[in-house]
Design a protein that fits this description.
By secondary structure, the chain is α/β, with parallel strands linked by helices. The chain contains 14 helices and 21 strands. The structure holds flavin-adenine dinucleotide (FAD) and nicotinamide-adenine-dinucleotide.
Length: 473
Amino acid sequence: MEFIMNELSYDLIVIGAGPGGYVGAIRAAQLGLKVAVIEKEKLMGGTCLRVGCIPSKALLESSHNYHAAKHQFSDHGIAVQGLTIDVAAMLKRKQKIVTVLGKGIESLFKKNAITRYTGTGRFVGETTENGHVIAVANNEGETRLTGKSIIIATGSVSSPLRGITVDETHVLTSTGALEIDQVPKTMAVIGAGAIGLEMASVWSRLGTEVTVLEYMDKVLPTMDQDISKNMQKILKDQGINFQLGVKVTKAEKHPEGGCVVEIDGKEALRPEKVLLAVGRAANTEGLRLDTLGITCDARGRIPVDTHFSTTARDVYAIGDVIEGPMLAHKAEEDGVACAEWIATGHGHVDYNIVPMVVYTDPEAAAVGKTEQQLKDTNIPYKVGMFPFMANGRARTYGDTSGFVKMLAHADTDRILGVHIVGKHAGDLIAEAASAMAFHASSEDIARVCHAHPTLAEAIKEAAMAVDGRAIHA
Ligand code: FAD
Ligand code: NAD
């Protein structure tokens, strides 16, 4: 009995093996802690790997290739005859990528001597000299573990919407939309955020007539307004329909086939499929936080201080289950900083420079403040814009849409925000984030030699444009 107790006691127990949990676990193990991770799904990697970032990007890549072969290859003198899309093969490829990456996490756990428990973790409201007691339940029964520190990394789930009956066959969340096995004729997407626009792009490229219904008067409403305007125009030109400033009151499967979507004051739609993509909600279901006296905020998130500590001693929370952008890389940063805090007493994330990327084609990417946020807070700024139209590499790609917009402080020239619409914007934004982490000025970037011909030259030119001296525009 004594032996078993020792075996099941850990320095750190992480509940949830998403990008926050598994990365935090690895960092803690690197720092010498004895770590266990509890994950209820067979495959680790969380929402991001199983039903989020990775599968959506796999489908975006496949649908992009199909669309390019159909509409763009001829510009290059490449003729394609008998082009078809095999949706089953596309889904199989996506699943293979997910499985391979999931196995990768398993081997990282082995390498770092992390013990994985499969099952649902919950607090039982007890502490022993070895720490908090956590129960892990699965089909075979229940195991009890003790941890000196606990990290809650249980992520998020799709937010429901009143009047919308999700059945995952007709009315879908993103999880269902990643599994559609035939190209639907028509689809309504509720919400023009990241999920809405990415999934609208996938199915529209494959031939579905997609209508995006958005409550606000713009797409990607939290991004810089120049991004919102430009992306809407580009996606409209690609064939996606938008109804903005609308309130969907009902969406459900229709008895005569397909779905019905009712919109306040407008004609109802009868699409074959509906995707509900109006945000995600923190997931604390079944954790029994009440046994620790933890009360979630009005949006269901676990309140934490700047070191991820909850109100319960030695219990921490990270990622989508706490306040902040619901992004995989933010969850990873939380995981690393939280593990470092627990093991060393130091650990920090700079939430001012968390980049955000929307993987449409072209991509939209941003880091730092939007122009509106600077206006609202009376921060004096200068703007440098540079269009990809004037970038040589963009021409060779055959896609000159979009721009780089740099916002710098009017007095100090320090970069405050960078906003990009354009090919590979998601990769380009890393330069801006790094520069901002080093408190760079726009002139710093303007004076760095950028290789030619690259899309990154547009960042240098935008930096020069802050000072009114862009060369190519
Ligand atoms: P999660 O990834 O949600 O992981 C939580 C894990 O905890 C899950 O595996 C769950 O099974 C497990 N769990 C929950 N409760 C328990 C319990 N009681 N016991 C045991 N295990 C439990 N973000 C980006 O940055 N880039 C993108 O391109 C991107 N694309 C996305 C596309 C889609 C369709 C979706 C839905 C999301 C996307 N996101 C993207 C968001 C990203 O997936 C999340 O921000 C990220 O996964 C959050 O990580 P996390 O570790 O906090 O939680
Ligand atoms: P989101 O918050 O990005 O967008 C939701 C959209 O739905 C908003 O534009 C909002 O105004 C709109 N909306 C809200 N209520 C509505 C209503 N009743 N009717 C119509 N529209 C309504 O959420 P999402 O797109 O569902 O994504 C969920 C989370 O996952 C986000 O936090 C996002 O950051 C993350 N995610 C990130 C990526 C990425 O980084 N590329 C991709 C997918 C998801």
